[in-house]
Amino acid sequence: MSNYTQSTDFSAKDALTTGDPEKIILGADIDAEFSLISTAISSKMDDSSGTLTSLDTGDSAIVYDTSAAATKRISFLNLRNQLASVSSSDSTSGTSVAFTGLTTLDTGSLTVNIKRIQVVFAQVSTNGTDNWIIQIGSSGGGYETTGYRSESGIIADSTNPLLNSLTSGFHMRVNSAAAVVSGIVTLVNIKPTAAALPSGEEWVASGILHNDAAGTIIPVAGFKSMSTATPQNKLTQLRVTTAGGTDTFDAGVIHIIVEY
């Protein structure tokens, strides 16, 4: 993207004496200004567009969704920072699916060589008592359901931490249909590289959630080494679901932020 910078100081010409050749405004001067304006405009995203297709390093963008529709989505594709947003619908695949009643929230296909993922929960709840889990996967191998070293718990006070572990995903010990949960779980790739890997990417998870209904804290921590086979060894998809896979999400908002 480029910004318009004026090349000719037209006001300065007003102070020049009559007969000074520099006082004349030439067609070439005007053409040069219009060319600069055209270049700046064509490099910007149209206000009516919902998709920004490219950004250069150091660029920034502010996107406003002013639609009145209940289903809203902002999609940044092929960017250094890629955002997949799920709010009252799962629209990452480009179609709208009712959020209420879903047992899983999937990102769909993501570009490889991800450095960090943030899963943001805002007043989320389910209709059951299963723990919640985050699973990662690849286009070649699907979602990986084993091999996670994950610990979570419920902390009501310093003397009563209720901890447990799961291997089926990075898990959050919610286990209450009455829970209303907010917080962020961050996944960091400790082997980010564009080159082929002799072994799989390694992901570390950490986060703190708050159960507003119970006034408790839910810590989350874990580690996952992806499959060593190519192309299964690089993350291209992420799923939020429950340990049993049958409880449904019935309220709240989940945002998934992917950084490259």
Core attributes:
single chain, 260 residues, mainly beta, eight-stranded antiparallel sheet, five-stranded antiparallel sheet, 2 helices, elongated
Order of the strands making up the biggest sheet: 3-15-5-11-12-13-8-9
Global morphology = elongated
How much strand content do the residues show? 35-45%
Number of strands: 15
The whole-number mean of residue pLDDT values reads 77
Tell me the count of domains.
2
What's the helix count? 2
Largest sheet: 8 strands, antiparallel
Distance between the termini: 20 Å
Q: Helices and strands: which structural class? A: mainly beta
Instruction: Give the radius of gyration.
Output: 25 Å
Which regions contain 5 or more consecutive residues with pLDDT less than 50? 47-98
In N-to-C order, the SSE pattern is HHEEEEEEEEEEEEEEE
Helical amount? under 10%
Sequence-ordered SSE layout with sheet pairings:
Layout: H1 10-14, H2 27-42, E1 51-52, E2 75-76, E3 81-86, E4 105-106, E5 116-126, E6 132-138, E7 142-143, E8 149-155, E9 161-166, E10 170-172, E11 181-189, E12 202-211, E13 216-225, E14 237-242, E15 249-259
Parallel strand pairs: 1-2
Antiparallel strand pairs: 3-15, 4-14, 5-11, 5-15, 6-7, 6-10, 6-14, 8-9, 8-13, 11-12, 12-13
